[in-house]
Amino acid sequence: MKRLTLALAAILVLGCFASAQAATEVKMTGDFRVYGNWWSGRNFTGWSNEFNGGSSAGSQTEDSFGVNQRFRLRTDFVANEALKFRLGIRVNNQWWGRGTLTADAPAVSIDVYQAFLQFKWPDTDIEFTVGRQPLALPQSGYFDGGLVFDSEAAAIVITAPLIPDTLSLLVGYSRFYDDGQWDGSTTQVADELDLFFMALPITLDGFSVTPWTAIGIGGRDAGYDSLVAANLTSAGSNGLWGAWANTQYAENLQTYNAAVAAGLIPASQQAAYTQAFAQAAQAINKKSMWENNQNTYWWLGGAIEVDALDPIKFYADVIYGQGAMSDRKSSQRHGWFIDAAIEYTGWDVLTPSVFGWWSTGEDGSWTNGSERMPYTVPGWNAGTSFLFDGGQELGADSNMYMNPVGTWGIGASLKDISFIEKLTHRITVAYVQGTNSSKAIRATNLSYVQILNNATAVAMTGASVTPAYYGVDYSYPSYSSNGLFAMGRDLTVEEYVIGVNFDHKYMIYENLAAILETGYAHGSFQKSVWGSRLVNKASDAWRVALGLQYKF
């Protein structure tokens, strides 16, 4: 906390100095939130997975209650209407008792999450924003954030009005990853991920549309975040031969060694198992994430909003994306995502809406690549549903973190319900079903792939050699816990999830709100895909969060 105090003091001193020296105006905005968070049945099991918990599915148990706190401060140094610099610092989503919020011995966890210069070219309305900034590829206004990317990034964004109040141009460039200016040898290494993007927002009376496109250049050796890697690549390459394969191999080898030590593996069978592990290691080392050093990704989309029939408003998005199409067939990925919503804003006491979406899903084979649209860091949600990550005011650990890509769904929402002054409510119901082949998700398990090639590898899936579905011992925790798919996050065509949330907000003061968020989810899952251990454990999920939010 001492460092936080010093950081705030430094900002104030710099602001005063700038005001005195160059008539710079200093403006501060920010927010603080703190809330208690209670869960039951997180991930539908109360256990972790790679996407929510950061470990093999079923290997860790949730804490049912915690208190979360976040603080953000944004300082604008404004020289004039055409020139300013923003510095944003934060202590981001810390749990009481951990990190900065540990009693008596706090760790330092202050970071700069925004630092950008914004200016207009002299005597024009062409605006440049350069530095680490909020960045989102276009999405219609009903949905809570962009699907392809919605986060902070180091970027340059240029906007220029072509026809005042009617047509404008947005172009930009961002570097997501770069492992350093110097590669480790005299051979250049493709360790970057770059994104180039362009949009043409068109606004007419009662109608607006934003056609947009983006091109990504990804290096094979870039330091991809595990979530971004899973969202970009095909399981035909990264799934079978990426970094997760080495992790799963190590976990299975550890389990096998423990089984040997416990006397569960007959001595007469151990030589065959040792050979199977050796063959698996050779297969993993032989493959890489991609065959090409670099691959190109491309997206084309349109965000549509129609209010010609106001108070009835219509929203829609159509996005196509593809990547690694010049690589081997199994590494290619391409697909579609479409969403739409209708909202009625003519009532004072509530705003009803209905929404739906559809996305292509995986077919039954990985030899032809992936049929899901590639994306990176999403913020998409519909109706601020409890099922997806986006729009929740008490945001950290606030939802089921489901993947909208590879699903279709419908829902309805009533927001801004208000019968008492200063008190508002929102209720949203959503139904989600998968568009992925059951066979596709089942086949991503490394153990399953190896069993297909070598029957002696059954012990790779656990301490028992008892065969179950497809020769796999589904009782082992890491089955289908591969960093690409997780039960409850990704759905097959035979699976569904229903989610309901009922949220409340009371304005104590103009800038201070008391917030209560509640959520419920029920799912139906395939035992032949996820195994008896996870599916038998699956139950309904509940969440209740109560807290305060202050904005200034």
Topology:
Blueprint: H1 2-22, E1 25-40, E2 65-80, E3 83-95, E4 110-120, E5 127-136, E6 150-163, E7 167-178, E8 192-199, E9 202-204, E10 207-219, H2 226-232, H3 235-241, H4 243-261, H5 267-286, E11 294-309, E12 312-323, E13 333-344, E14 351-359, E15 407-420, E16 423-434, H6 438-443, H7 446-453, E17 496-507, E18 512-524, H8 527-530, H9 532-537, E19 541-551
Antiparallel strand pairs: 1-2, 1-19, 2-3, 3-4, 4-5, 5-6, 6-7, 7-8, 8-10, 9-10, 10-11, 11-12, 12-13, 13-14, 14-15, 15-16, 16-17, 17-18, 18-19
Helix pairs in contact: 3-4, 4-5
Short key terms for the protein model shown above:
18-stranded antiparallel β-barrel, 19 strands, alpha+beta, 552 residues, single chain
Q: Would you kindly provide a written description of the structure presented here, covering whatever features stand out?
A:
This protein is of the alpha+beta class and 552 residues long. The chain contains nine helices and 19 strands. It is globular.
Report on the biggest sheet.
18 strands, antiparallel, barrel
Beta-strand residue fraction: 35-45%
Low-confidence segments, given as residue ranges, are 238-242, 451-480
Number of helices: 9
Mean of pLDDT = 86
User: How many DSSP E strands?
Assistant: 19
Offer a quick outline of the entry.
Helix content is 18%, strand content 41%. It is of the alpha+beta class.
